[in-house]
Amino acid sequence: MIEINKQEIDARVKEGIPFTHRWHNRFHLEMPFGLINDPNGLAFHNGEYHIFYQWNPLGCVHKNKSWGHVHTRDFVNYSMPELAMWPTDEHDKDGCYSGCGFVSGGALRVFYTCNAKDENGVRTPAQRLGTLRSNGVIHKEEIAVPTNEKGYTGHFRDPYVFYRHGKRYFILGAQTEDERGCVLAYEETSEGTWKFLGELKTKMSEIDEKFGYMWECPGLLKFGSHDVLLCCPQGLEAKEYKYQNLYQSGYFAGHVSFDSMEMYHGRFQELDKGFDFYAPQVFSHEGRHILIGWMGMPDRDDDYPTKEHGWVFSLTLPRVLTLRQGHIYSKPAKELRALRIQETAVDIDAAETKQVSADLGEGAEVLLDVTMGKAQQLDFEIVYGLEKVVFHYDRRTQVMVIDRDGMKLGGRGQRRFKLYADDNFSLQLFVDHTAVEAFFQHGDETATFFVFPEKNILPEFRLVSDEPMESVSGRVWELDSFRFHETKSS
Ligand code: FRU
C-alpha cells in the first residue's frame, strides 16, 4: 500500500485548476491528474449536492482507488476537489472501491467496498460504513459485512443503501460461483446489524438464464409505484442495435418485493448508447432523480489518449430521469442553463434547406428541432477541420449510427441503435473540449462519448440532409466553464 498524502494531493489539484490543456473539459467534472471512474456517494446534505468519485491520484491506471469529493448547490459552482478517502489499512489496502452516500442522524454517511487481495489475487471484499467529517475526510467506521457470502465469488461490491417501509436495506453487485452476475440484498436489523436476504430473483435468474458474468454498481429507484433496478452487467454479447460497448449500464423497470425477494420487470434497457458511459449513480432529492455517470469504459485504455498527459476520464453532466411506460427519459438538469453565456445561432432557422451550420467555439449547447419533410437521411456532424464525428439518422430504418471513424486519435468505430423519430427529430447536444453528450427525442435516448481532435481547431456543427428538410429551428449557446471555489470545509 503506497502512502497517500492528502495535503500534497489537494495542493496539486488547486495548482492544476483552472486547466490549461486543450483536451481538458470546461463543464465536465474531471481531475488535473490521475484516473477517475465511478461517481460514488451521491447525496444531498445541508443544502448541497455531494459528489464523490473513484480516483487514483497517483497515476492513470486502475490502482490506488481513493474517493475524491466536490460539493455544489447548482451544478455550476463547485468546491475545489479534494481527496476524501484513500486506502489506509488491511481491509482496503487494494482500494476504497465504489459505494453510496446517505444522510442519517444529520450526517453524510457512506457505505463502500474495501478491496483487499492476497498474494494469489484472491479478494476479500468487506462492506464498510463511514462518515464525512467537517475536515473533508471520510472517517472509516465499522465493517458491516466482512466478506463475500457462501456461493458467491470475491466479485462482491458496490453497496447501495435505500429505505422501504421504514426499514433500511442495501443491495450490492455480485457473481455466483458458476459466474453469473446478480444483485444481493441485506436488511438492517433492530440491533443495527445487516441480515443477508439472498439474491434478488429477476426474470433472468428465474429461468436460469445467464445475463452476464458480473453485475456492478446496482441502484434502486422509485418512480411512483414503479421500481427501477440499475445495474452494470459485464459479459453480454453485442447485438445489432444494443450492448455494443464492452460493458453495459442499464436498468430493469418493474416491481420489487423484498419479502419474496423477487422482481417482475421488463427487458433490460441501456441508459446511454454512446461509447463512454458506465457505472452511473443517482441522487434522489425532492422528487428528482439526478443521474451522474462515469465518462469512460474499463479495459479500453487505448481509447483515451489524455493518459499520456497525466489525467484520464470525466463525469457526465447531471441528468434528470423520468419513467414513462417503462422507459427512462434523461434530460440535462435545468441548472445547466446557467452555463449559457450567449446565443450564437447562425443559419439555424431555415425552411426547405439541405444544410445548416453553426460554430461551436470553446464549448456549446445546440438545441434543434427538425421537421423532416422530404428528407429521409440526416447527418448531424461535429467537424474539426478534416476530422469529424457524425450522427447519421435513417428515417426509413429508424436507425441512428454514431460514427467516430472520422477521428484520428482515441477510440473510433460506430454505435448503432434504434431511434423512433417520425417527421420530427429533436436533438440537444453538449459539445465540450472532448466530452460530447447528445439527447435525442427529448431524452428518449442519449449518447455520451469523447472525441480527441488532433489539431487545435474549434468545432463546427453541421446538419446535412439528403432531400430538403421542411424546417429547422433551434438555438446554439456558447457555454461557460464550471467554476471551482475554495471553501473552508464542507
Ligand atoms: C466499476 C467498478 C466497480 C468498483 C470500482 C473500482 O467501474 O469496477 O465495480 O467498485 O469500479 O474502481
What's the main sheet like?
11 strands, antiparallel
Enter the CATH topology name of the largest domain. Answer: Tachylectin-2, Chain A
CATH homologous superfamily identity of the largest domain: Glycosyl hydrolase domain, family 43
DSSP strand (E) fraction?
over 45%
Low-confidence stretches: none
> What is the residue-mean pLDDT, rounded to a whole number?
96
Task: Describe, in plain words, how this protein is organized in 3D.
The chain has 490 residues and is mainly beta. The chain has two domains: 6-335, Glycosyl hydrolase domain, family 43 (Tachylectin-2, Chain A); 342-485, Exo-inulinase, domain 1 (Jelly Rolls, Sandwich). The chain is 3% helix and 53% strand. The chain contains two helices and 36 strands. The chain has helices at 6-16, 203-206; strands at residues 34-45, 48-56, 66-72, 77-79, 82-85, 96-104, 107-114, 126-132, 138-145, 152-164, 167-176, 181-188, 194-199, 214-223, 226-234, 250-257, 262-265, 269-270, 278-285, 288-295, 311-312, 314-315, 319-324, 327-332, 340-343, 350-359, 364-371, 377-384, 387-394, 399-403, 414-418, 424-431, 435-440, 445-450, 460-479, 483-485. Strands 25, 26, 27, 28, 29, 30, 31, 32, 33, 34 and 35 form an eleven-stranded antiparallel β-sheet that branches. Strands 5-3-2-1-21 form a five-stranded mixed β-sheet. A hairpin with a 2-residue loop joins strand 14 (214-223) and strand 15 (226-234). The longest helix is centred in the first third of the chain and has 11 residues, at 6-16. It is globular. The model has no long low-confidence stretch (mean pLDDT 96). It binds beta-D-fructofuranose.
